[in-house]
Amino acid sequence: MAELATLLGPAQLQLEVRKSRFLAHAAPVADAEAALAFIAATSVREATHNCWAWRIGAQYRFNDDGEPGGSAGRPILAAIEGQGLDQVVVLVTRWFGGIKLGVGGLQRAYGGCAAQCLRAAPRRVLIAQVTLRVNCDFALAPLLHARLREFDARKCDETHDADGVWLQLELPQDRREAFTDFVREASRGRARVHGPA
Fold first, then answer.
1. What is the CATH number of domain 5-125?
2. pTM
3. CA pair distance 35, 7, nearest whole angstrom
């Protein structure tokens, strides 16, 4: 399976199709709330339609904003998916130019405008992350903290109990095995790595 990517930042593209003007805005988003906030902030009230789609992991939504069903939001979503993008929202605003495009014409216009915008936008590869819990004694904790950076690991949580320290970490999935080996060797097999959390 190809690596998923997201956008480095916002992008836009304008297109004219049979006197209707289409303006695509795309942006990276972390969650549904961010996608909806982008749509609300970027929509143009005076325009004829503000159609959109977003995908974040397994979640996705799209909206035709009054265009015939399936003629706008779904083609925008197809443009996102067709380019292997994730964590992306696209809004395509249309100003009607007086010539009806028909459902097929609308699908090509909305999907094409979104696709061209996304193709031109700078991207970054999304790295699959895994969340692990590590249980170690108090003496080992400072060494683990000191070495997190070399595994691109980020501490999400830390708690203490009678058994020692519990760390919740997020790190790239492809670093999991090396990190687990490091913990086993550094603790002489006493520390435990559990996960994904």
1. 3.30.230.30
2. 0.67
3. 13
Which of 142, 126, 109, 161 lies closest to 8 in space, CA to CA?
126
Q: Which fold has domain 129-194?
A: Alpha-Beta Plaits (3.30.70)
Number of C-alpha atoms within 13 angstroms, CB side, residue 196?
8
Q: Distance of CA 117 to CAs 10, 26, 80, 111, Å?
A: 10, 7, 10, 10
**For residue 17, what are the contacts with CB-CB under 8 A and spacing of at least 6?**
101, 105, 108, 109
Q: Enumerate the CATH 3.30.70.240 domain ranges in the chain, comma separated.
A: 129-194
Confidence of residue 89 (pLDDT cuts 50, 70, 90): very high
Q: Please tell me which residue, 162 or 41, carries the higher pLDDT value.
A: 41
pLDDT in tens, 96-106: 988 888 899 99
What value, to the nearest 5°, has the Cα angle with vertex 151 and ends 150 and 155? 105
Per-residue pLDDT tens digits for 173-190? 888 899 999 999 999 988
Q: If you count DSSP H runs as helices and E runs as strands, how many of each does the chain have, helices first?
A: 5, 11
Name the one residue in this structure whose structure tokens are 């779904």: 74
